[in-house]
Structures are given as C-alpha cells and as structure tokens.
Design a protein that fits this description.
Helix content is 25%, strand content 42%. It is an alpha+beta fold. It has 2 helices and 5 strands, in the order αβββαββ.
Length: 127
C-alpha cells in the first residue's frame, strides 16, 4: 500500500515550488514558514486486492484568509486535473474526488489563517 501522505507531499511540493512548505505535521515554527500545506491521511478502505481508497485532509496555513483560500483552490485544481491518471515511482493515481470543499477552519493561533479540504483518492502500487 502506498504511503499517501508521503506521495502527496512530494507530488505537491514539486508543483507548488520552494516558496510553499508541504509536510505532514505542523510545529512551533509554523508562523515563520508560511504558507504551509499539511497533508493528513484520515482514513479510507481498499478492495482487498490492490486498490486503496484514501481520505485525505489538506490544511493550508497562511497569513491571510484570502491567501489560504487561493492556495487551497490551486491545490484543488492540481489534484482534480493533474493527479488523476498520474504516477510516481511507487503509486498510480486514479479517481480523485472532493469530499469537502476548501473552507475556513478554526485555528487557535489568531496570527494565522487555516483553510482545509478533504479529498478521496484512489491509487494502487506500481506493478
């Protein structure tokens, strides 16, 4: 089974460039590393043979709500239009669907803004 977080971190980082931090966990230095995209696998299932269905939360942290919404929209477009049908060294991606559209989510640090979305991603290992 592919590590969906690791796969998406590398895939997104390559497309968003070095000015955006893409990672699986946030830390105490988050405010100094904006914008940051957090990739979190939150569940899913499989067909018992080879195909995995992942649910993935993507949280965008930025200085302003507008910046966070803009980046979240860019990520949504990348996932729906470029991830589908693509492959990495270890995974082949099929269907990608938005489960929950990008929307503002609460965050305890009022100096940051957080926008999150949830996606359903089907993939299988490279043969």
């Amino acid at each position: 089974m592919p590590d969906i977080e690791l796969e998406l971190i590398g895939w997104l980082q390559a497309r968003l460039g070095s000015e955006v931090v893409v990672r699986d966990e946030t830390d105490n230095n988050l405010q100094n590393e904006l914008p940051t995209v957090q990739v979190e696998g939150v569940g899913g299932d499989d067909d018992g043979i080879r195909l995995d269905r992942f649910l993935v939360d993507l949280n965008v942290f930025a200085a302003t709500r507008a910046d966070a919404l803009t980046l979240a929209g860019q990520i949504k477009a990348l996932l729906l239009h470029q991830l589908r049908g693509s492959a990495t060294v270890t995974a082949v991606f099929g269907r990608v669907r938005t489960v929950s559209l990008p929307a503002a989510r609460p965050y305890e640090n009022t100096a940051l803004r957080r926008v999150g979305a949830t996606y359903e991603i089907f993939c299988h290992p490279v043969s």
